[in-house]
Amino acid sequence: MSGYNEGAYHQARSEHIAYPCPFERALLSRCVDCNRALRLNLAEREAISCGDPATRVHCMEFHQDLHVNAQFALKMQAGTAWPFGKEIRAQCGGVRGLGAALGEAGDAATDVGASVLRGIERWGTVGAFPYSEIMRAVVHYEPRKRRS
């Protein structure tokens, strides 16, 4: 059993992170990037906070829409917790798919916040993003394999 006090960690995390990033897992796995992300270390763990609360609202809406649209593609039941692997596929594939839909490379250099804002400029709202195109990237995204 680890010597960590998870309750104390979560309390410290909530005290230090005013605006949690909805794409934190993708950013921590380094499959995408965001110039608004503020990285910090808490109890030997890395955490990410959003440095732009106005953009975070749009990112949260995109994150929620990704989950709704990816349920069928990733064979998820509505209302169930997302396992880590499927969450990574939704986040990384979704952001990369949005980047590709915007005519960008759609790779690890894709900036989450900037892509969401450019998508809103192009399609008007987050709900109008081309989710059928984005879902192809979600389905085809393969997380990196664990080292053996």
How is this fold's topology laid out?
Layout: H1 6-16, H2 24-28, E1 37-42, E2 45-50, H3 53-73, H4 84-101, H5 112-123, H6 131-140
Antiparallel strand pairs: 1-2
What would you say about this model in short?
By secondary structure, the chain is mostly helical.
Overview of the structural elements:
The chain is mainly α and 148 residues long. It folds into two domains: 6-50, no CATH class; 53-140, no CATH class. It is 52% helix and 8% strand. The protein contains six helices and two strands, in the order ααββαααα. The chain has helices at residues 6-16, 24-28, 53-73, 84-101, 112-123, 131-140, and strands at residues 37-42, 45-50. It has a two-stranded antiparallel sheet with strand order 1-2. A hairpin with a 2-residue loop joins strand 1 and strand 2. The longest helix is centred in the middle third of the chain and has 21 residues, at 53-73. It is globular. 30% of the residues are buried.
Task: Figure out the total of helices.
Answer: 6
Q: Roughly how many Å is the radius of gyration?
A: 16 Å
Structural class: mainly alpha
Listing every helix as H and every strand as E from the N terminus to the C terminus, the arrangement reads HHEEHHHH
Number of β-strand runs: 2
* Proportion in β-strands: 5-15%
Shape designation: globular
Average pLDDT, to the nearest integer?
A: 87
Give the count of structural domains: 2
Helix content: 40-55%
Strands in their spatial order, largest beta sheet: 1-2
The residue ranges in which pLDDT falls below 50 over 5 or more consecutive positions are none
